[in-house]
């Protein structure tokens, strides 16, 4: 019976990946209200979360539409797509996901027994870890002028994110924030150039072993992301890594894809080992099964790895076809359609206030390319709220803003 749960979960993950705005966490919450059997639903949710962690790169790279997991992959993915290497970008994500699943399997037994000790050691120091990482991120611009500009972008986006997350007026606060900062801003900058997407290069997809160290680093960082409350999304971890590592666009994509996949696997281990559920799917599974036994955790990990492997095959088959199809479409029409779709999604979830937040985010999002700093500093939209939240000052900020 569980095999049907695994298959249905896989296709639900594919659907959630291809339709921005339909998140796997939302589907998991709906499945909790069904009466299909605890392990059947848990297997479906694990399979869905795993396949979604692979398929979510399609809209991020080809449509510039991010979510909380893939938001930073929009930036290098867009650069490769505009160089005619969209198929390569998507294939790189697929191969990185596959190798990340393999490396994760090797580390999972160690993580299960080591996580409790690591968590108890670092938990008291997490605010300082986050603060230092933010400082290194800004300092990575190196020149004083660029550091000052990056700080301005970081704080502007941080204030917007703080307002969106703290003010009780938005149902899905990150949707208008991310849509504006990364998708709409990027599309508006691209529309200035007009024309069509560059013709996609006919190239044999060969993934060099050069990327394997970044895949392995992504796996380790994905494991750590399940131990750090407040900075637990792959996007946040990837941004911090960019402050310490030299990452061109392909290396950054390999890192982000690996973090996302390992994060989904280690989240299952973290739930069993330290009782902390860091993802929507792991929270749903915990509600279904309670504290998972070692045997149940092993089954769920096996289901997830199988789902990832099949998703990688499907993604490799789709990558060239998607790139060829989109390269024949006029860029302006695609951009305007995506903007209309994002505006509709934001209005559907968050109404006119959501559109206002999205417009403000778009205005902030065009600043980094215009002043010559990296767009990763826009991740202040979730890093600043994390720091404020960990300091316990979120309510003070909200009272100052709203009176």
Structure summarized in a few sentences:
With 403 residues, the protein is an all-alpha fold. The protein has helices at 2-18, 24-31, 38-55, 57-62, 74-82, 86-122, 126-139, 144-166, 174-191, 212-225, 234-242, 249-273, 280-289, 294-327, 331-365, 367-371, 380-391, 394-402.
Task: Give me the secondary-structure topology.
Blueprint: H1 2-18, H2 24-31, H3 38-55, H4 57-62, H5 74-82, H6 86-122, H7 126-139, H8 144-166, H9 174-191, H10 212-225, H11 234-242, H12 249-273, H13 280-289, H14 294-327, H15 331-365, H16 367-371, H17 380-391, H18 394-402
Helix pairs in contact: 1-3, 2-3, 3-12, 3-13, 3-14, 5-6, 5-12, 6-10, 6-12, 6-14, 7-17, 8-15, 8-17, 9-15, 10-12, 11-12, 12-14
Question: Would you kindly provide a written description of the structure presented here, covering whatever features stand out?
Answer:
- With 403 residues, the chain is mostly helical.
- It has one domain (2-402).
- It is built from 18 helices and no strands.
- The N and C termini lie far apart (55 Å).
